[in-house]
Amino acid sequence: MNKSDQYFILKDKRKLGFTQYGKLNGFPIVYCHGSQSSRLEMHYDLSFTFKNNLRVITIDRPGHGLSDFNSNGTILSFASDTKQLLDYLKVDKFSAAGMSAGSPFALGIAYLFPKNVYKTTIINGFAPYTKESKQHLSKEVKLMLSFAKSFPFLLKHLLKLQAKQVAKNPQKSLQHFLKIMSEPDQKILKNTAVIEVIEGMYKEAFRNGSKGIAYEIANILVKDWGFKLNEIPVPIAFWCGIKDNNVPYEWTELMAYRTNKVTLNKCLNEGHLLLFNHAEEIFIDLSV
Hints:
Layout: E1 6-9, E2 15-22, E3 27-32, H1 47-51, E4 54-59, H2 75-88, E5 94-99, H3 103-112, E6 117-123, H4 131-134, H5 139-150, H6 152-168, H7 170-178, H8 183-188, H9 192-205, H10 211-221, E7 236-241, H11 249-256, E8 262-267, H12 275-284
Parallel strand pairs: 3-4, 3-5, 5-6, 6-7, 7-8
Antiparallel strand pairs: 1-2, 2-4
């Protein structure tokens, strides 16, 4: 099963794009993609989903891919969108996973619907943006998030330019996007199957321009999330690559120390793309 262009019409008439990977009758796992990405973000080798009876549901957040923009979008409104989709799919009990900037959204789902969420996994997760957390950022990421926080109009302009470059020359734009990644990530990126996945999810993120991406970074990720980490009653497994140049591993530690029912997995020789090396064990851990 891999119907990549599915969508659902929400109660407010917005379109919500999604894709399902693996077995239709497998244990459901909602996967929240990273920033400047889309529902197409998933491992190139899906054999682990069939072998372990898993059903992975990936969802375009508002303004990404097939999903309509939401001018009032929040982390918790996306959680409600997700629950509407899962009710439509007749999914009651499920787990949630978040990669990078998708992590707040996976945590929001667990916070808002704890009776439905079996477990949550956070992979190189974006942490609440505070004075404490931003001191761990690389120069490039700190600059982008500073623009988002203090000069959102500049971020909006930069992402508009990026969207034009994606439309004109996606390979060139992607190389610029990937160049800050660490040595372990650069080794993973030598795999052409990985590049195909990343290029596909990246291009799809900008299908309708950059409005949704800019809004998410400036109006959601660097603002108050609407809940506290210690208010989440669901078990959470954290994974981080110590050599991650995109999201510092210290952010994972900050979240883990503030969350209940925690498992912390540190991968000493991994970077931001550790999912490509550890997908099976990460997703198995999310199943019943």
